[in-house]
Amino acid sequence: MNTASKKPSPSARRKARRFTVQALYQWQMTGTNLGEIETQFRVDNDLRKTDVEYFHELLHGIPKCINELDGYYVPFLDRELKDLDKVELAILRIGVYELSKRVDVPYKVAINEGIELAKYFGATESHKYINGILDKVAQKLRVLEMKANDKPAE
């Protein structure tokens, strides 16, 4: 469905993020090989309306730079990293990956998608926690973009 010249739809990206939360959660809980997890997701789920390239990038890219990603948000946590809920951890890593590695994803989209993922998968109030942390990370990583958005329209 998606070709190199066609930009993936927001809903296809959203589905890729949802599958990534689940796949990262599985990886964090079991330590199963990422390739095996990806194969399982491709077999067990209908990915026709999913940006599978983005799913692949997130699933394999996030673990490769996990220490860097964690370093961006750990200063804003109100608890130890090890005490963070595994679903929240997966969502934060996706959001911070997008903020730090995917400048084509506007910071507002990265934050909003994190909030929506937390509402979908997380505990009752976790979306507020995710919002606060991703917003603080965006203030560090996307300073120029945030300033440009704050300028009044001429």
From TrEMBL:
Full protein name: Transcription antitermination protein NusB
Transcription regulation found in the keyword field: yes
Domain NusB/RsmB/TIM44: residue ranges: 14-138
Family membership noted in the UniProt record: Belongs to the NusB family.
Function of the protein: Involved in transcription antitermination. Required for transcription of ribosomal RNA (rRNA) genes. Binds specifically to the boxA antiterminator sequence of the ribosomal RNA (rrn) operons.
Domain of life of the source: Bacteria
PANTHER family in UniProt: ANTITERMINATION NUSB DOMAIN-CONTAINING PROTEIN, N UTILIZATION SUBSTANCE PROTEIN B-RELATED
BP terms from Gene Ontology: DNA-templated transcription termination; transcription antitermination
A GO MF label: RNA binding
UniProt keyword Oxidoreductase, yes or no: no
GO cellular component, one term: cytosol
Keywords tagged on the record: RNA-binding, Transcription, Transcription antitermination, Transcription regulation
Pfam families linked: NusB (PF01029)
